[in-house]
């Protein structure tokens, strides 16, 4: 359970960058657990066991990334969310250009940890929303659900229509927008601090 901070609630716009990052994280997870998984297995020529290892890496690093982000994301949300989104961007690029199973595993490591960190930050910020805490937690869950659904549907469409690599190439602009919004939120937060 996320404890409410005794400090003054943060402005609601602070959550926009981490929320977009959460949507991206859910999109990448939805794409990975959808039909794209079997296509990756076939195109890369690896076994079902390697595929399960990739999923395990993704889920374990996602869970590992949430814990420090819940703690650190309360104090410095943009300092946690921006590198997390950058890590997801790096993972997306590695995965889109992957030539073998080792690259897929490395990309899954980056994407998983970044996803966990950005999700933890979004949850930490939602937990500090004061009277709107419940509504913000529901909003984070809704954003994650939309991203997951979009990852499943769009991942299936792009995999069957073009190539599985385009599922990840299309994630690059989403990651860049998330990064810009998170950075802008940090800059605005710094300029609005009382002297």
TrEMBL record:
Gene3D superfamilies: MFS general substrate transporter like domains. The keyword Transcription regulation does not apply. The chain crosses the membrane at residues 12-33, 53-72, 79-99, 105-125, 137-159, 165-190. Its main location: membrane. Keywords: Membrane, Transmembrane, Transmembrane helix. PROSITE patterns: MFS. InterPro entries: MFS_dom, MFS_trans_sf. It comes from the Bacteria. Residues 14-195 form the Major facilitator superfamily (MFS) profile domain. This is Major facilitator superfamily (MFS) profile domain-containing protein.
């Amino acid at each position: 359970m996320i404890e409410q901070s005794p400090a003054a609630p943060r402005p609601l716009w602070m959550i926009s960058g981490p929320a977009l990052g959460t949507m991206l994280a859910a999109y990448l997870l939805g794409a990975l657990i959808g039909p794209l998984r079997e296509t990756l297995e076939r195109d890369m020529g690896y076994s079902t066991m390697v595929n399960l290892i990739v999923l395990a890496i993704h889920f374990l690093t996602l869970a590992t990334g949430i814990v420090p982000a819940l703690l650190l994301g309360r104090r410095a949300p943009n300092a946690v969310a921006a590198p997390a989104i950058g890590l997801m961007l790096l993972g997306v690029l590695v995965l889109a250009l992957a030539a073998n199973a080792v690259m897929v595993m490395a990309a899954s490591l980056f994407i998983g940890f970044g996803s966990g960190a950005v999700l933890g930050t979004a949850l930490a910020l939602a937990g500090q929303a004061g009277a709107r805490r419940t509504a913000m937690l529901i909003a984070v869950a809704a954003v994650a659900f939309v991203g997951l659904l979009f990852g499943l549907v769009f991942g299936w469409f792009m995999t069957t229509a073009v190539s599985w690599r385009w599922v990840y190439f299309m994630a690059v602009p989403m990651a860049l927008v998330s990064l810009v919004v998170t950075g802008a939120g940090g800059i605005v937060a710094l300029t609005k601090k009382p002297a």
